[in-house]
Amino acid sequence: MSGYVIGRIGQAALVLWAAFTVSFVLLQALPGDAILIKFLNPELGLGPEQIADIRTSYGADSPLVVQYVHTALNFLTGNFGYSIHAGVPVGDLILANLPQTLWLGTLGFLLSLVLAITFAALSVLSPFSWLRSFIQSIPALFISTPVFWLGILLIQIFSFQLRLIPIINPGPWQALILPVLTLAVPISAPLAQILMRNIDHVLTEPFVAVARAKGASHRWVLWKHVAKNAVLPTLTIAGILFGELLAGAVVTEAVFGLNGLGGLTQRSVNDQDIAVLQAIVVFSAAAFVLINLTVDLLYPVFDPRLRVRQGAAA
Amino acid sequence: MTTTINIKPVSTDVSNLPVLEISKLTVGYLGNEALQRVVHEVSLVVRPGEVVALVGESGSGKTTMAQAVIGLLAENGRLEAGAVRLNGADIAGWSQKQLDTIRGSKITLIPQDPTSSLNPVKTIGAQVAEVLQIHRQGSRAEIDERVIKLLALVGLSQPELRAKQYPHELSGGMRQRVLIAIAVALRPALIIADEPTSALDVTVQKRILDLIDELRREYGTAVLLVTHDLGVAADRANHTVVLKGGRIQEEGPTAEVLASPRSDYTRKLLADAPSLGKTRPASRKRSPRLVGRDDAVVVKNLVQDFAVGRRDVFRAVDNVSFTVRRGTTHAIVGESGSGKTTTARSIVGFLKPTTGRILVDGIDVTSLRGENLRRFRKTIQLVYQNPFTSLDPRQTIFQIIEEPLLNFGSLPREDRARKVQAILERVGLPQSVLTRRPHALSGGQLQRVAIARALVLDPQVLVLDEAVSALDVTVQAQILTLLDELQRALELTYLFISHDLAVVRQISDTVSVLHNGRQVDIGPVEDVFQRPGSAYTRELISAIPGQRNGNQYSFP
After folding, report:
1. Is the ipTM of this complex over 0.90?
2. Which of A6, A151, A308, B517 could bond B339 through an S-S bridge, CB–CB 3.0 to 4.6 Å?
3. A215–B101: do the CB atoms touch at under 8 Å?
4. Which of A61-65, B122-126, B337-341 has the lowest mean pLDDT?
C-alpha cells in the first residue's frame, strides 16, 4: 500500500514538473513581452538604454536555460517572482484573488453535484419511460451550452428582466448566485449523464435481481445496492471535471467582472504578464493534481476490491 | 448439519398439495412493434421436497419461466395468461409489493453466475443478513448470530471470517454457497435454481449440487431446477420437463424421460449430450495412423512464471511435457486456474516460456522474435470460447474471414474471394452469410465463422480454447462433428483446451490433465478415463454429471 501511495505521489510530482516546463516553453514562445508592453509606452519617455537596463534587472535577456533553472528554483522555494504589470509579488496577487475563486469553485462544484444527483434521482424514480428519457436528455442540452452565453442569459433574465439580483453593488452572496449557477450547469451535465448511465447499468446486474429475490423493494435496492455502486465510477470523473471548473472560472469571472484567479488570468494574458501566468498554471496544475490524487487515494476506502487482499482462500 | 433455525412445523395434510402449480402460463416480451411470446401455455407441478428439472437450450424460455414464477421478469416482460399458484394462492397477478412479502421467505432464488450475483461493495455477512432484515427476523444481534450459523450450514469454513469478507475474496464455489445460504435462510417452500452450477468447475458443481440436495432433503424444500444440462437433470431431478421454443416437448419422471424419450427433440438432446450420449461411434478408431507420423507439437518441460508484486513469482505452468502426433487431437483438461489456457498461449507464442521448449511443426517457438514470430502464427491458429465477442461486430463475415489473408501474403482480390468462399463451404455455411454482420448469426454459425477464419491460412495446428463450451449441446455436437470432418480432410492437428471431460472423451486421441499447473495425468484418452493415474483425475471423472445411476440412461 505504501508503495502505491509513494508511486502516486511521484507521478503527481512528475505531472507538476511537466506542467511547469511546458507552460514555461509556451509562454516564452509568445511574441513580445510584458516589459516591452509596459515600458515602451511613449508617455513614460524611456530611452532604449534605460529599457535595456530594466530588461537586465528583470533578467529578461539571459539565456532561456538560465531563466528556466532560475524560475524553477524560485518556484521550489515559494518565490513566484514579480508581476511586471502590477509591480507586486505574484504570490501576493494570487493570494488576494484566491478566496473569490475558491468560493466560486466550491459552491459551483457542490451545486453541480446537487443538480446531477437530482437529475439522476428524478430519472430513476420517474414512473413513465417517456418522462425518464426526457429527463435523461436534459444533460446533453446542458453540455452544449457555452458558459459565456449562459452567463449573459442569466444576467438578462434575473437582473434585467426579473430584477431579482442587482448588478450594481450586489451583496457578497448575491454576487455569487449567478456565477455559481453559470459554472455549475455545464459541469453537472457530464456528472448526471455518467450517474444515470451507471444506475441503469447497475440495475441490470445479477446482484440486483438477487436482492429483489430476497424480497427487497425497488427503493431498498436503489439505496442499499445501486447507489454506492453507481457513485464509485463517478468519483474519477468528478476529479477530472475539476479542470473544467478552472476553465469555467476564467470565463465566468470575466463575464461577471469578479476579481478571482480567472479574472487575473484574463488580465495577465492581455498584459502578457508571464510571471503571473506561469504561477497560475503551476498553481492550477497543483490543485488539479492534488484533487485527483485525493480521489485515487480515497478509492480503496469506498471500494473494498481495491484494498490489499487479505489472503483470499480458495 | 444441526441447526436451530426457526423450524416451523409443517402440517402433514398439506404435504401432498403442490408447492408450485403453473397452469397454462403464457409469457411474452414487448418489442418495438409487437408482443413476442416466448412461453406458450406451459403447465407444471412441483410437490414438496421434489426436484423438478426444466431442461432446454438457450432461447427455450426456461429462464423466462423461472423469472415469471418469482415475479422478476424484465421490464418489458408480460405475464399474458395462466396461473402461478404457490401453495394454492395464485400469485400471477400480484403486485411487486405483494410479491416482496413472499420473495426471500416462501420462494427464493439461486442465481446462475455467483461472480456477479453478490454486491461487490458489501460484506458477505451483510448480504446474508439482508434477507433476514427485510423479513424482520429479530434483533441485530440475533440476525448476526444466524448469519454465522447459515454460513456454517452451507459448508463454509471459518464463517466468522467469511462474514466480514467481501465477495471478491471468495472463490466462485464459495460465493455460490453464500447465495445458497441466502436462499435457504428462511426455509422457503420453493427454491428456484436457475442454472446454479453452469459457471462452476465440474468438481465444484458436484459439491454444490450435493449441498442443494442435502438441504432440500433436510428441510423438505421443493426445487425448480433450470438447466441446459440433461446430465444434471438425470442426476438430481425426480421429474423432468423438456422445453423447446417455449413449449413443453415432453415431461415425466426423469428416469422415464431419459430411458424412453417420446419426443424426437428429447431423443436428439440425449444423443447430443456428451455426458449421457455414448462416446462417438467412430470414436478415434485411427490408431494405425497414429504411429509412423511425425509430431506436430512437442512441449518439453514447459514452465511459465508470472511476477506477482515485486518479489513473488506465481508458477502458472509447472513442468508440462507432451507431444501431439500430426492429424490427431490432444486435449488439455483442467479446472479454472489449472494453467491450461496459459499452456495454450505459450504454444501459440503469445507468452515467452520461463523455461522449456516448444516445437510446432519442427519450429522452436521459444526462439522466435518479431517478423519470424508473426510468420509462424500462420502455422498455428486459435479458436476462442465465445464467438459473440471474438468476432468484430462491425465487420462483415467476408471481411472477418478475409482479414488473415490480408495480414499474410499478397493474394489478388479475386483469389482471396475464392478462398473465403471455399472455406465457408468447408465449414458448412451458405454463401449468403458473407455480407452479413456477426449479430445476424446464431452462436453455432458464429463459431463456424471463427473456425473458417482460423482455417483460411491453411494452418497445421488449430488451438481450440473452450471452443464449444459456450454452445448448446445440439450445436456443440454439430461443431464437434464439423471439427472431426475437417481434421480428416485437412490432416489438421488439434489442441483442444477444455474443462469438460465428457466432450474431451468424444473428440480427443490423447489427453493431459492439469491441476494447479502440474500435469497429473497423460496418455491416450481411453487409458486415462479407464485407469486414471491420479486421485485428481478420478475426482474429475466422477464429478461428470449424468452417471449417478450407473450411466443407465445412456442413449443406445
Report:
1. no
2. B517
3. yes
4. A61-65
